[in-house]
Amino acid sequence: MSAQRRNCESMNISVPPSSNLHPFPTQQVAFHRTELSVILSLYGRFVAAGEWRDYGISCLRDVAVFSVFRRTAENPIYRIEKRPRMRDKQGMYAVVGMDGQILRRGHDLKTVLRVLERKLIRAVE
């Protein structure tokens, strides 16, 4: 036998056991690209106005959350939530204030975000 063939025979190729406890990956709720473009467009206008400075996105099992911060170390001043289970009831999109109060809920993201756009409009002197 050649030396190369002996090296191949002596190698044991084994597949490591799967460490995944769940046979299927857990599903997460996330924002779609079109939804994110609407949210980030609004976010950019508030950043340009100097109102918002940071954001965070959380994709959980039941809800996707876009949190808006005035400063990084604070609690979010607004949360834009997507809850698909509420689609048939009150609408799956909601804007939640800092105190947990739901400012607006609905089926269309653009109309729900209008509650925040009103805060951007200021009187120019």
TrEMBL record:
Superkingdom to which the source organism belongs: Bacteria
For this protein, the record's Pfam families field holds: DUF2794
Q: Which InterPro entries match?
A: DUF2794 (IPR021252)
What name appears for this protein in its UniProt entry? DUF2794 domain-containing protein
